[in-house]
Each structure stands twice: as structure tokens, then as C-alpha cells.
Amino acid sequence: MPPVARRALLKAAAAAGVAAQFSWAPGGGRARAAVPVAPVADGPVGIRWLEDGGVGAAPGSTFGVPWPKGLHGGDATFALAGGDGKDVAVQSWPTAYWPDGSLKWTAHAVGPGVGDAERFTLKAGTPAPYKEKVEVTRSGRKVTVDTGVITAVIGTDGERLVKSVTRDGGTRIAADGRLVLLRQGDIDDGDTGHAKWERFDGEIGAVEVEQDGPVRAVVRIDGKHRKGSRSWLPFSVRLYFYAGAESFRMVHTITYDGDQEKDFIRGLGVRFTVPMRDAPYDRHIRIAGEGEGFLTEAVKGITGLRRDPGAAVRAAQVKGEKLPDPATWDQRVTSRLQYIPSWGDYTLAQLSADGFTLRKRTEPGRGWIPAGGGGRANGFGYVGGVSGGFSFGLRDFWEKHPAQLDIRGAAGDEAEVTLWLWSPEAPAMDLRFYHDGLGQDTYPEQLEGLNITYEDFEPGFGTPYGIARTSELMFWANAATPPAATLVDQAAAVRVPPQLVAEPGHVSAAGVFGGLFAPVDRSTPAKAEIEDHLDFLFTYYKDQVEQRRWYGFWDYGDIMHTYDEDRHQWRYDVGGYAWDNSELSPDLWLWYAYLRSGRADIFRFAEAMTRHTGEVDAYHLGQWAGLGTRHGVQHFADSAKQQRISTAVYRRPYYFLTADERVGDLMHALVDSDETFLALDPLRKIRTEPYEPDRHALSIGFGTDWSGLAGAWLTEWERKGPKAGKAEARLRSTMRTIAAQPNGFVQGSGLYDLDTGRFAVAGEPAVNVSHLSAMFGLVEMCAELIDLIDLPDFKAAWLDYCRYFNATKAEQRQRYGKDFGNLLLFQGHSRQDAYAAAQLEDDRLAARAWQKFHDSDGYTRAMKWQRTRIEGPDALEPGYEHPRISTNETALFGLAAIQNLALIGDKLPK
After folding, report:
1. How far is Cα 434 from Cα 639, in angstroms, rounded to an integer?
2. Tell me: the pLDDT tens digits for 176-218?
3. Are 334 and 279 in contact (CB under 8 A)?
4. Are residues 711 and 738 in the same domain?
5. What is the domain-level CATH number for residue 633?
6. 8 A C-beta contact, residue 210 and residue 661
7. Do residues 562 and 711 share a domain?
8. 738, 855, 747, 741: which is closest to 806 by C-alpha?
9. Deepest of 543, 583, 646, 810, by most Cβ within 10 A of its Cβ?
10. How many domains does the chain have?
């Protein structure tokens, strides 16, 4: 798919609702690829923009590059050059290492100096001299960051996160950057309203300089929102600065720690103060609508008046230029300036994915005047004047509604800008559980409920306490009111931040994520057919996001689980059939799809899913911190809190491709998540024998449980994190003791000792196989670990599991003395056949893999790859459906297709 310019994508997103979403996870060991890719030599790697347009108005870009094992030593340095061969200043640092100490992943940052260059080459070498540097100093109660163009002073205590932003020798553009929270103690439910609001302000608890240049600086600020003696709603804010930039980026995370019955968020925002130095007619307001649309006004407008100040004067004001001395105007205007209203307040509210309203007023206490409206605003604005002004933007503005932009007091000495992540004009955020329990007080009753609605309910478990949400914002300190084209570029940088990426061929050849993917290959009709089906499925889900309006602050990034063909609707209100919450690894499917294709639309889809599933579907505080929640009507509703959802496996690709620190935090926080098995037994409702969690004998499954733990340990180890030693030891000890079980992975589970990190070896063989065990990243994790850690017994145990899951019951009984029972998901497990076939060079297993892929369950040869039109009154909105498509089967088909093609594509029947 050809790359799409950010400006074109901006237009398309506003006009057609093209979604940008989702995330993925790590993969297994490097297996033999069916279509060999030329090994990466010690030469330049092609780097390109994910979308066309260069860095645009953004402050810079940070990207990740993988390297083959043993190619570069841990102390290697790198040089970047543009397509014209000219050196480009780059800052580089390692993000992962191979076990031999060589570099596995590196991150690289470039500033705005790269301009509109379309392609680059990266190679080992001495980086170009830094003509511009970002400098960070810490003194007293502040941290100062100087990009060479702007200087930001960051507070280390109190409420002012950003004390000031100046440029050009000290001209103050913005000040008092702070966080605002509005709390409501109850919900008005009826035709009378009594709910009261109270305001909390973000209070700094800790500040850390994570990077200090020369190209990129990162400052992290943590704290809570406070009013009086109460502090709640923890926040983590990172500020990103690049050398030579006039802008900076903010990544803002909140974690909900309130009482869902009485702590209702009415508004959540980021606020700055902007000095207004210019005459009211030289002060300008710019608010983006859809596409490249803008409200273009002055605080005191001199266009459209009964008397004309002159064409040149009017044109200058519309352009945002300084007006001539009023003495040179038509004096019939100049002498009456005091009678022209000054409009100081503006509000754009996006309360749904489909509509925004824009209004203004002269001052508080005066009536609001409608100023326009539309469908999907870009979440961008500007306030200032000819002597300088502040641009501001909130990414995914309409997708994560309700959102709002406020400008207040622009007619006075200071304007106040607020970017509302949750609009105070929307109903209060209501996170209460959606039903009363329906009498499900005991485990037997809850299992009966599971058997009818597929929801695993348990009193007290449907809580949002500990879930989080991350938002991205961008700010510019302008020397003057920017021209229209610059504002369009700034808005585009907010909507689609420019991202550099390595070419897919290099990523594949590096052997990362287990080598379970290869570049898209349409060289034969059979391969082309599978590629067509993969494209069909991704496009279908991208379109369903738009058609079904899978948007909203807590929802954007997820997709639904199962379709209801009777209602022509996804089962959004039916227990465990609603939001997918990473069930059966759609995150992995999407990231593998990107890694092999390099497609921008897939990357953005996966990116939004990563932002969602890593934050909203998992707990970051409280007794279940480190666990995620199974699929349900609300993302936190189901009582199955498990490793299989919180797993680092689904976050790793985005982290290594972008070096995103927030996702890095999420993965590091999981290193000690084996402790969660003391807090909650995932099998508590179905155990047939007495069991109490014991620190030295915790029942942990070798499938969905261990794969989640292994993903966190592997990531910490390869990143050389603070607990890398423990992580590596845990990996090796659990791998050895799984392999030592009488039946290896087929044993199903073991008793784990938290202090030694070992499983007790069972005295008797057992057969305990579930069709779910390997479908949450275990396939990918085992393949990767086998490549990294030389433990032949572990490899043999995994290959046995791969060989026998799809075997006949007779073959299973012959090997284990007992068959595996009634299983499902054979198509998804065909990738295990493919892995074993590649490792063992077994053509019989390769043939079985393709047979199970094409003709077992899932999307077989009988699948009709076409959509059906639906319209009213059968559906709420006209669109398309495919009743046969479900997310479980889509994820497994996608992963099996991608991995089978990579491993045994040369064995694909014609």
C-alpha cells in the first residue's frame, strides 16, 4: 500500500472517519524461513517516514531499529544520512540486547532539522556533529530545558508542571502549565439536577530527567490531583523536547483510584496561561475544524464592519499580521474602535465522534454566540498575537470523545487555554458496574451465568480501580501568529505524529520476535490468495471501527469479540461477547501484519490498540495490579483477572519500534507479577480439589499464565532493566522445570515457588491440555526463547506439544497414554505444526499444518470472502456485515497465515 501524506490522511480521517488503532506483542524463536531474506550486512539500513510529509511541524521523531544477533557490539555508535547523502544529527541508545551482548534493538531520535527529507540511511559509525543541542539543567526547584529555540522551566513541586515557556531571548509565550480535575460526587439521574462539582489541581510528587540530549530530552513528572487534604487520581506526565524545535510533546497518563459509586470525573484537563501583549485587533484566535478547516478570527475584528478600515488592513488581520498604525486607517473606524466588541472566550466541544459545536462570548457573565460546528474536529487551536502565541493540540480528539478546547480571557492581559481530555460539558464519567449481579452470589451460580451470557461475574470484581488511560498532546511557542499553511501543518502533526521506520525487509532479516514473519509475498496464486484474505480481514475491522463507532475515551483502540447476525450488530451488550480485551491475541496479529508489510494504516490501528489494551484492560494499582481483565461489556467488568491480558507480549513491538517510555513502564511493572498468584487464583471457580495459594506452591499454568510471566521477564532481561538478573534467572529456572515435568507442556501446570522461581517437578505424568493455553502469546514466546536460550530439553518439550496438539487421538494416546480430549482452534494451532515442521524439517508436519489451516475450523476453504450490505430498518446505520467473522477466528487465522507463510511457505499446496 503506498504511503499516505499526513495532510491527506488528516483530510481522509475527518471526511471518512478512517480509524487509527491497536497494538501487538513479542514473538518466538528464529525458525527457518521458507522464503529466505538476504542477511543484513554491516551496511546502511533504509529508514523512511511511515506516512509522506517528513517531520512537518512536529518537534522531531524517535524510532527503533532491530539488528541481527552478533552484528553490533553493545557500545556501537550510529550515523544517519539523508537521501542526498548529507549527514543528519541523531541521538542513539540501546533498547535491547541479544544474550551475547550484541545490540538487538536501538532507538534513534532526530529533530526538526531533518525537514522534508523522505528517506535516510542508518549505519554503524560516528554520528554527525550536533549543530543544535537540547540542554537540560536542574537547579533549586526547577528543571530548565533549552532546545536552542524555546526554553521551558519545569517545576519540581507545587502545581505548576511547566512554569514558563519562552523564546527569542526571553519572550514569554506560555506559563503555569498545570493539570485540572473536576469531581462530581453523585450522578443526576432524572429530570432534576443537584450534583455539585469540585476542582482538584495536579500536585507534583516527583520529577526525573530521563534523557538530557543532545537531540532529545525527556522529563517525567509524577503526582496526584489534590484539593485540601485529599489527593487522588495519580498522574504521570512526560515532556519531550528536541534540539532546534519550537514545540514540545506531552504524554499524559491518569490511573483511576476513586470509588466508582461517588468519584465521578466531570472534567479532566491540561491548562496553560498565555500572555496577551498586543492590541486587541492584533490578537488572533485559530481553532481547527475538520480537514484543513479553521475558524480564523481576531479578538477585536475589524472586518465586516459598516465602515471599512481599508482592504490592506483587513487582509493583514485575516493573515494574522501586525496591522498598520490605526492613525493610517479610515478614521471612521479608528475613532469608534471602543464600540467593537472584544471576544475573549471560545469553546469547541466534541461530545461524540460525529459532531462538534463552536461558540464564543465577550466575557464571563455574557451570553454565548454560536460560531459554527461540524463533524470531527482535529483538536487543535492557537491563541496569541503578532508578538507571539501558543498553539496546542490533543491527539485522537474526536476518537476519544468527549473532548473540548477552551480559550478564556483572550481580551485581557492573560488568556487561559484548557485542553479537556474529558469535556466538562459531557455527562460525568460513570464507571459504575452495569448490573446488580443478577443473583450470582456463589461460584455455581456464576458458572451458570457464564453458560448463558459468557460473562464471568463475581461480586466486587467489576471495578475500575487501577485502570489507566494515556493521552498525547503537543504545544508550539510561536514567535508570531503562524500563517494558515503552518497552522495546517501543526494540526496535522497532532493528528498523525510523524514516525520514522525501518524497511520491512530489514526488520524481518534481523530475526527479532522469533523470526515468525516474512515480508509480504504474492509470488504464487496460493500465496496471493492468503494475502488477499489477510487484507480483507484488516480492512473489514478498520471499517467496522468507523461503521460501529468504536470510539470514546475508554473504548478507543479496542474491537468487539463476536457478532449477532440476528440484530445485525456486534454483541456489545452480551456478557463476554462484547469488547475483545486482547482475547486470542488480535494485538499480535496486527503487529505481525505491520512488521511484514510496513503499512501505515496497520501501524496506526495497532498503535491505538496498544495504547488501549495496555492501559484500560489492565490494572496498575490495587490488589490486582499486574493483571488484566477478560473480555466483557465493560473493559473492567469480568471477574477473570489474568496474566494473559496484561502480558508484555502485546506491548513489545510498539515499544521497540518507537522507544515509547510509557509502554516501557507498563512492561517493567510486570516483572514481579508472579506475586499476583498469591492475591488471586485464576482457576478458583473450577477447581475440584482444595487449594489455597501458598508462596512456595502456587498453581500456575504453563500456557496463558507462564507466557505472560515469560514475556515480562524476557523484556526486562533484554532491556537490561533494573531487575534483569532476576528476570533472566526466572526464565531459565521455569524453562528447565517445565521441561523436567513428566509430560512437559502437556502436564498443563505446576506448583511454583516465588522465592526460587522454580516449578516443582510432578511425581506422576498428567495430560491437561486446553485449546486456549498457547493462544495468548505462548507460541511466539517459546519460539523466541528457544532461539535465545540453549536448553535442548525445553525445546524438545515444546516441539512435542506442537506436534501432538493437532495429532489424532490415537497418536496422542500412543505418546502420552491418554488423548487430549475434545479440542478446538485447530486452524490457530496449525502454526505450531508449521514451527515444528521448520525446526525438524518434517514435510509430513508441514502438510498437516496446511491441511489444518485450510480445512479444519476457523476460516476454511468454504469461507465466502465478501461483505453484505445492511440498511434500515434492520440496522441503526447503513453499512456492511459479514456474520461469519469473529475476532477470535480472525486473530488466529491472521497469525497462522503469517507464521505458516514465513515458516513453510515453500510447502504451501498449489
Report:
1. 14
2. 999 999 999 999 888 877 889 999 999 999 999 999 999 999 9
3. no
4. yes
5. 1.50.10.10
6. yes
7. yes
8. 855
9. 646
10. 3
Q: What is the rounded distance in angstroms from the CA atom of residue 579 to the CA atom of residue 15?
A: 26
pLDDT of residue 768 exceeding 70, the answer is: yes
Q: Phi and psi of 791, rounded to 5°?
A: -130, 90
Question: Residue 265 burial (CB < 10 Å; 0-12/13-18/19+)?
Answer: buried
Strands (E), 98-170: 103-110, 119-124, 135-139, 142-146, 150-155, 162-167
Q: How far is Cα 743 from Cα 796, in angstroms, rounded to an integer?
A: 11
Q: Average pLDDT of 144-160?
A: 98
Task: Record the cell numbers describing residue 286, joined without a space.
Answer: 485559530
CA distances from 402 to 2, 240, 351 (A): 33, 26, 4
Cell of 513: 520476535
Mean pLDDT over residues 376-381, rounded? 98
Residue 42 is predicted with a pLDDT of 58
DSSP code string of 745-777: GGG-EEEEETTTTEEPPPSS------TTTTTTT
Q: Given pLDDT bands bounded at 50, 70 and 90, which one contains residue 324?
A: very high
Note the pLDDT tens digit of each residue in 843-876: 999 999 999 999 999 999 999 999 999 999 999 9
Distance CA 128, CA 366 (A): 57
Is residue 764 predicted with pLDDT exceeding 80? yes
| Same domain for 505 and 372 | no
For 493, list phi and psi in degrees, rounded to 5. -70, -30
Integer Cα distance of 526 and 905 in angstroms:
10
Per the domain annotation, does 319 fall within a domain? no
Integer angstrom CA distances of residue 786 from 74, 735, 894: 22, 10, 23
Q: Is the pLDDT of residue 17 over 70?
A: no
- What's the whole-number average pLDDT of the chain? 94
Domain residues for the domain of 122 are: 44-131+497-509
The H or E element that residue 834 is part of is helix 826-840
pLDDT tens-digit readout, 207-236: 999 999 999 999 999 999 999 999 999 999
Cα–chain center distance at 148: 31
Q: Is 62 contained in some domain?
A: yes
Return d(Cα 4, Cα 873) in angstroms, integer: 36
- The percent of residues above 90 in pLDDT, for the chain, comes to 93
Say yes or no: 203 and 222 in one domain: yes
Q: CA torsion, points 888, 894, 896, 898, in degrees to nearest 10?
A: -160
Whether the Cβ atoms of residue 233 and residue 256 lie closer than 8 Å to each other: yes
pLDDT value of position 814? 98
pLDDT at 133 over 70: yes
Query: Within this chain, do residues 657 and 674 fall inside the same structural domain, yes or no?
Result: yes
For 501, list phi and psi in degrees, rounded to 5. Answer: -145, 155
Fill in the amino acid letter for 481: T
The answer to whether the beta carbons of residues 752 and 825 sit under 8 Å apart is: no
First to last CA, the chain: 26
Q: Whole-angstrom Cα distance, residue 887 to residue 34?
A: 28
CA atoms of 427 and 197, how far apart (whole Å): 12
Residue 24 to residues 393, 396, 527, 891: CA-CA distances in angstroms? 27, 19, 24, 11
User: CB under 8 Å to 365, separation ≥6 — which residues?
Assistant: none
What pTM value is reported for the model?
A: 0.95
Torsion of CA 10, 12, 18, 20, to 10 degrees: -20
Please state, in angstroms and rounded to a whole number, the distance separating the CA atoms of residues 115 and 129.
Answer: 17
58: confidence class by pLDDT, cuts 50, 70, 90 = very high
Q: What Rg, from alpha-carbon coordinates, does the chain have?
A: 28
Q: What is the pLDDT of residue 543?
A: 98
Question: Which pLDDT does position 9 carry in this prediction?
Answer: 38
Distance, C-alpha 205 to centroid of its chain = 25
In the predicted model, what is the mean pLDDT of residues 785-807? 98
Distance of CA 838 to the CA centre of its chain: 33
Same domain for 373 and 261: yes
